[in-house]
Design a protein that fits this description.
Strand order of the largest sheet: 1-2-4-3
CATH topology of one domain: Multidrug-efflux Transporter Regulator, Chain: A, Domain 2
CATH architecture of one domain: Orthogonal Bundle
Number of strands: 7
Largest sheet: 4 strands, antiparallel
CATH class of one domain: Mainly Alpha
Shape: elongated
Strand content: 5-15%
Number of helices: 10
Helix content: 55-70%
Order of helices and strands: EEHHEEHHHEHHEEHHH
Radius of gyration: 22 Å
Length: 216
């Protein structure tokens, strides 16, 4: 069955076949609340492509070693994530490139560190948002750096804890430079003078790291 030609709908047996699982397994997933309830039409239950996408995600995560309990926790965190539009805003300038990821791709990036707790922390921090069935990381650079730190043996939970502290300091720096610029210029100058503010922060951080390295 189709809904105005846009979304395909499936009976239970059709959905199970499309997902490559048994009807018994589908019932089990539904009982465990791994998928949302189907649409009811009398005694007939109709599933759609969002159910199929979730079932394929479950299969993909199981293949990567995640347990059903862990997948259920990931699904709950994912379902309660903030919409990516709330994180990115509309029309504002940005030098960051968002990255769209499936839950399986996110698991490939972080492996066993892709836990429900870490996903919830990243969602709360605003690194991750949701867009339909996809997860969106707000910054390719931050994603790459986070993954590199994890590969170096630093737990993702510690990376996210550090990120919260960095966020506090960078918000203060942004306020400082915004106030400085707006004291002497119109708001239009914020974009033009932005590279200067970034250069100051980068140079000061470099010098601070030099001092820490010399004293260690």
């Amino acid at each position: 069955m189709t809904d105005e030609g846009e979304r395909r709908e499936y009976r239970m047996a059709e959905l199970a076949e499309a997902a490559g699982i048994t009807v018994r397994t589908l019932r089990f997933y539904r009982e465990r609340k791994l998928i949302r309830p189907p649409r009811r039409e009398g005694r007939i239950a109709w599933y759609d492509d969002t159910h199929l996408a979730r079932l394929r995600t479950i299969s993909g995560l199981l293949e990567r070693g995640h347990t059903l309990t862990g997948i259920a926790e990931l699904a709950e965190a994912f379902d309660h994530g903030r919409d990516v539009g709330d994180l990115l805003g509309v029309g504002g300038p940005s030098e960051e490139t968002p990255v769209r990821l499936t839950p399986e791709a996110l698991a490939d990036v972080f492996g066993s560190e892709a836990t429900a707790e870490n996903l919830a922390a990243a969602l709360e921090l605003g690194y991750l948002g949701t867009d339909g069935a996809e997860i969106v990381h707000v910054s390719r650079r931050l994603l790459d750096v986070s993954a590199a730190l994890v590969r170096e043996g630093i737990p993702l939970a510690d990376v996210l804890t550090a990120a919260r502290r960095v966020r506090t300091h960078t918000e203060a720096l942004a306020d400082l430079f915004t106030t400085l610029i707006l004291t002497h210029h119109t708001p239009e100058a914020l974009t033009r003078l932005r590279p200067l503010a970034k250069s100051v922060v980068e140079a000061e951080l470099s010098l601070a790291l030099d001092r820490r390295a010399a004293s260690s």
